[in-house]
Design goal:
Elements lengths: L6 H13 L1 H11 L3 H25 L4 H29 L10 H19 L8 H9 L4 H12 L6 H26 L8
Length: 194
């Protein structure tokens, strides 16, 4: 079982999901974590890591208040968005009895982590820069682990693979964005972190 006590273990998991997603999903499947364990041992530290990365990148270009707000909004948006994505995906697939219990949570959480890691790094680059634009495109590399995990992890037939991939991508990108906008308005900060 992987314990996420340092950044190297996060990075290794991300790298393996991008390069060899089928084998990494098999490892994840063997871990057999409950939702609570996955959220507390992976998602919370990961959200914190992304918040720290976004804070560090934004403090270089802005003031402390904006950087702290970006840190807070990033953490809340990632956690709340992914948690709601899990719940919605579970409801959408509730009739699919063949999907293993933890598979829904795993595919949402780990695929979303690819998206948000690239997103957090964008804060190191100015708005409108080419590198930032490339990183924003790289966020959609989250499709790679989703595509690689649908058959072995969710046991979804090939005919439904495209539909489920689109659904998961929409969930992990739209819901955190909604939370981001909401908390940006509440905290009265003219930023869009997601």
């Amino acid at each position: 079982m992987i314990e996420y006590t340092n950044t190297n273990k996060f990075i290794k998991r991300f790298k393996n999901l991008l390069i060899d997603s089928k084998n990494e999903w098999l490892k994840i499947k063997k871990e057999d974590k409950t939702r609570k364990t996955l959220l507390t041992e992976f998602l919370i530290p990961f959200s914190l890591l992304c918040g720290i990365i976004a804070f560090t990148g934004s403090i270089l270009d802005g003031d402390l208040y904006t950087a702290v707000t970006i840190f807070i909004v990033t953490i809340i948006s990632i956690y709340a968005g992914i948690y709601c994505s899990i719940i919605i995906f579970k409801e959408v697939t509730i009739s699919k009895k063949e999907i293993p219990i933890n598979a829904r949570e795993n595919i949402i959480v780990y695929s979303a982590s690819i998206y948000f890691l690239f997103h957090a790094i964008t804060f190191f680059f100015n708005e409108g820069s080419t590198i930032r634009a490339l990183l924003q495109l790289a966020q959609f590399l989250c499709v790679v682990p989703i595509w690689g995990g649908i058959e072995p992890l969710l046991r979804i037939p090939k005919a439904n693979k495209i539909g489920y991939t689109i659904l998961i991508v929409l969930l992990i990108t739209i819901l955190p964005t909604l939370f981001d906008k909401l908390f940006s308005i509440i905290l009265e900060v003219p930023i869009a972190t997601i």
